[in-house]
Write the structure tokens for this entry.
Amino acid sequence: MTVNTPAQNISVLPAGNSATAQYQVSIGASVPDMTTVPLYVKCVVGQDIIVDTIYLTVGTVMETFETGNLTAFPWQINNNPWFVTNEQAYAGNYCIRSKQDLADNDQSEFFITVNCSPSANISYFRKVSSEDGYDFFKFYIDNTEMDSQTGSTDWSQASFPVNSGTHTFRFSYRKDSGVIDGSDCAWVDNIVLPGMGTLCVEDMDDNVGVATRDEILSSVFPNPTTGILHVQCSEPVQQIVIYDLSGRQVISYNGQNEQLSTLNVNNLTSGLYFIRILTTDQHFSVSKFIKQ
Ligand SMILES: [Ca+2]
Ligand SMILES: [Ca+2]
């Protein structure tokens, strides 16, 4: 990664005010999508230096369902869950399908709540086979209906703008009473989630010089986990911190100066988390895991 913008100078900043500094960065073409890159932000105020870390996730964040399940992102389902299937995929081998044999006057839903920044689009492909004009595929952003499909439609893409902030994206198949037609369901594939590319992690106790922050190897398993998380590191561990998707610190663990640490994450809600490992030699690594 290359930072293309020179250091910014904020001349006078009155107490209680804020200022914005914009930086442009370039990522090498060989960096795979979804790689997490730490950016060090160093702020010099007179004699004081504050070092903070921003974690940037590279590239498009897309749910392809190619894991064969719903563990790649913190999806939630209602009591008539959609399910991942290897029939009818738009791309690859898998897509997601609304509940089979859904009851009359009922709805099958899956949804996700994410902190989006900056503004961007959400897009997805959908296909419907339903009673035309009576049974519907619908897509909502924060309970506002954005998309409505009925009858027999082939795969096509829908795309909607999303403002910066926290939003819930909900996919629904809903039926009226009586008649059904076709396969009586909807399919969805290749959901591009907006703006999850930027993740800021508050790191106020970070007083370690930038030059010493070399990345080390670590592995986190099992992933996904239901309760116990093992962290294997190539150096003795000083501290492990777990952050949720909005950058909030949810677990802080003081290492026992050993290379293998075991954490209980049973109390975390289901979803995707970042884990930051700092070694006694002041090296670090950042990776992700899913709590089921
Ligand atoms: Ca797919
Ligand atoms: Ca119907």
User: Anything to note?
Assistant: The chain has no helices and 23 strands. The mean pLDDT is 85.
